[in-house]
Amino acid sequence: MHSEFARGRRLGAALGVLLFAIIFLFTLLYTLPGDSLLSPLRTSLAARGIEFTCEDSRIVFPLGLQCRNAVIGTRGGGAISIESASASWEWTGLFQWLPFHFQARRGEASVDVRTSPMVSDPGKVRLGISKLGSEDLAPLFAAPSGTGFLIDSAELQWKGNSSGADSGTGEGSLSWLRLPIPAQNSPVREALLRDVRLKFVVREGTVHVSSLTGTYEGSAVDGNGEIARFLTPAASSITFHLRVQNPLEGKIATLFDLVAKNTKNANLRIKGSLLSPTGEFQFF
Questions:
Q1: How far is CA 43 from CA 12, 62, 73, 116, in A?
Q2: Which ranges in 56-146 belong to alpha helices (H)?
Q3: Which pairs from 107-112 meet CB under 8 Å and 24+ separation?
Q4: pTM
Q5: DSSP three-state, residue 180
Q6: What is the CA radius of gyration of the chain?
Q7: Residue pLDDT, tens place only, 85-94
């Protein structure tokens, strides 16, 4: 009886010490200035050539950090302002093995990232994008004149493995996508696609788009393509082949009149890089 009582006292004391340690840790975290916790993050990003500053930072309950009026950019390059950014550890995310949550907002645009516990080398990532346009990214990635887009929503689920053969699946929608048409013999100087929907998979650094649909001047468009080396936009390569369905029924019929009376079909070929895509109409 005495030994059981002693064990109970030791267990109670251990629980008391653990509870005290937890309370002390939380008290220490919430009394520290947020900037002191940002220093390791800045150092880590700086090692990758990324500069990050935050005007106002604070700890949020239970395990999170929030920044307001932040600026992120590349060393020697452009920078983009972010109204708010937050990073937190969410216990509920452990059920999906995605406990680390990062979110950034700029106006209506938002980026939402959830990753597995190994943040530095995640085995699982879920990325969400909403209301993000080319103008939001212009300070970082200057696109040529005539190029632009507005992403309504996009989601990517990414999985990595020990062999390095990462893969993922996703889908997205764009309100519009504008491309310049540089060919001198083209009757139009740009192509504006609307209501774009796409489905894709990611394998070994290449985005394979299995389905892309939309409209151009009242005519339906569909096709597929790929983006190689999408993680390095300047070195990426885009190839898309789109078919204009029933082109004589929409406003694009005017283009046919300008090209040739006997033309019955039209394709739109997109090539270039993520930072400088161009389109080319092919009539036949």
A1: 42, 24, 14, 22
A2: 134-137
A3: 107/83, 107/131, 107/136, 109/133, 109/136
A4: 0.78
A5: strand
A6: 26
A7: 888 877 777 7
